[in-house]
């Protein structure tokens, strides 16, 4: 094998530059030219890691806004469920909770297809296509005339809407070096948490003022505007796709078919697709690290959605709130989440930077320091206990609201900490790792709320929420242990899986 210097035309700048290419000079084969970033690698503007901060953050903030709107649409109808049931002529208690959670069932299904597609064809095309489909299904939800059609459209909305929530982590891995990902993940992930909390506030007021269908009409306009902006801002970031495009341009320019991306494989498109399509499931079922962490996240996420689906019933029945006032009860959880986001933004990258400053390589476990895992793992169940027993005792409504704020604070610490850990631990396949996470938490978010009203009818507000609190408390050691011993666990033979 030899390395020669030759003049190569850069098709983006239109200038010729001298660069090193690798030739595989085996006697029986045709020389092959390996395509990589232009030297010096850390200055090539085609590499997303070298984009300007403004360009990087424009992409990340756009994804955050979309990731905020999608779960907002998911939860905005919670305060108006009874009005929707009356309009669609159904008294099914299953519809009451499933109309909210079936959207999240779409969240659980979408990553199995969307994450692999993003690793085959790139991030941008998946974003743009799914954004357009999400707009379409949002329009149609507002036109539904039967319970069945409404539920079907809600599922499809969730299926396509989950794209930014699933693939956004992969885009951040493409754009940000490891020691700067914490703030980026926080900015992106906060939308996924705040959306379900702000949605009912908006939905409650719009539904009371103009009817539930206008909730979807208003969101159609908002989503349409955001999609238009996103189409101009979002650009491809996946290195495999960018380098393959560069190789294709060189093959066309030179007439030489032997230019090949360094990241290319010998597998056919069909083999690549089949491998990619099963990757999230493989990681979820066969990689114990992913399985354990995703199970913990799923329990917390399902508990949150159970709360979201039942808040309106709780505060209407116990405290006599109106539809619009029932939407306002989500503000406390949103404030707690924002406080947790601020806390995370100060700590998430600091552990990584401290380790790098000592000359040691950064580790995924640096994303789970004790200052994050212990407060997050303990405040989540603590908030459930406060919320459940103060509602049971019919204490002033502000006290259970404090409980929901505490739970919101703990949830964002755990969600962002584990999500960033998965990105760092499975960097090349970050979208699939987070897709596996989205699948399991989506299933929990869709199915656990179905038992919400029956749980409270059987055990009451106090013991019902305490049961959920004890379950999350039993799993609290998970992030702590991975933060302390994850580097050893990842090196155990049974914990290593080829993806």
From TrEMBL:
CDD domains with a match to the protein in the record: MFS_Tpo1_MDR_like (cd17323)
Residue numbers spanned by region Disordered: 1-20
KW DNA damage (keyword) present: no
Protein's membrane topology: Multi-pass membrane protein
Family statement: Belongs to the major facilitator superfamily.
Name of the protein in question: MFS general substrate transporter
GO cellular component: membrane
UniProt GO MF annotations: transmembrane transporter activity
Keywords: Membrane, Transmembrane, Transmembrane helix
Subcellular location field: Membrane
Pfam families on file: MFS_1
Source organism per UniProt: Echria macrotheca
Residue ranges of every copy of the Major facilitator superfamily (MFS) profile domain listed in the record: 59-491
InterPro entries: MFS, MFS_dom, MFS_trans_sf
Transmembrane segments: 57-81, 93-113, 125-145, 151-173, 185-206, 212-234, 283-308, 328-347, 368-389, 395-418, 430-451, 463-485
